[in-house]
Amino acid sequence: MRTSAALAVLLASVASAVAQPGPAFELASVKVAPPRSGPVGLVALNTDPAMVRYSNITLQNLIAMAYRMDSERVRGPAWLAEQMYDVVAKLPAGASKDQVPRLLQSLLAERFGLAIHRESSEQRAWFLVVGKNGSRLKKAQEDAALDLQQVRGSAPPAQISPGGIRGRAIPIATLAGLLARATGYQVVDRTGLAGAFDVDLKWTPDGVAGSAPGIFAAVQEQLGLKLEPGKALLEVLVVDHAERIPVAE
Length: 249
What we know:
- By secondary structure, this protein is of the alpha+beta class.
- The chain folds into two domains: 21-118, no CATH class; 121-235, no CATH class.
- The chain has five helices and twelve strands.
- The radius of gyration is 21 Å and the shape is globular.
- 27% of the residues are buried.
């Protein structure tokens, strides 16, 4: 009898632990973004240290931020990268911005019914390494080394365009993600470089006449880095379920 009672208490304790919700924002609003005209991209405003605000952001990017992964490695229906949302959330008392990704995970599960799983497979990739003459990256000032949720004026911290990547106070992981979009293959950071950097990379796209070098030469000449071909075991996030219309707060 005592054994059965102890087992019952143990099972109840385990069930209680499983049922415990994860950390959550104190308050949060998640809405489908209204139609916007012109080149309006992601705008994140963090002037209030207790708040996070994302305007015109896709669910794909929200998932990427929540799980600290490049958005190109989030797999799911096409609308994940098309439908835009506006998000405003208040951090719980005592929480720091470092906890935002975990809080986002809870929010996405609650409002979108998000369910994911991870997969790994060997894929063609580029390895980003330091060139033989050393890095030429410009280290960002300490007071400017803000995370990806923050914004400078009305522009995101990193931007990519045909023939260019510009970023202020971005980590190498962000640069690798942008280079992946430019090259069409995943870029794995093997530089060993820590911290945040200011980047202004310019190249001539394939098939376009221009004075700038191609992207691979530009990475070497302007950044002191190198893209080496290879294969890597890469992890992706696969979205098993997500509602397009978020649950109202």
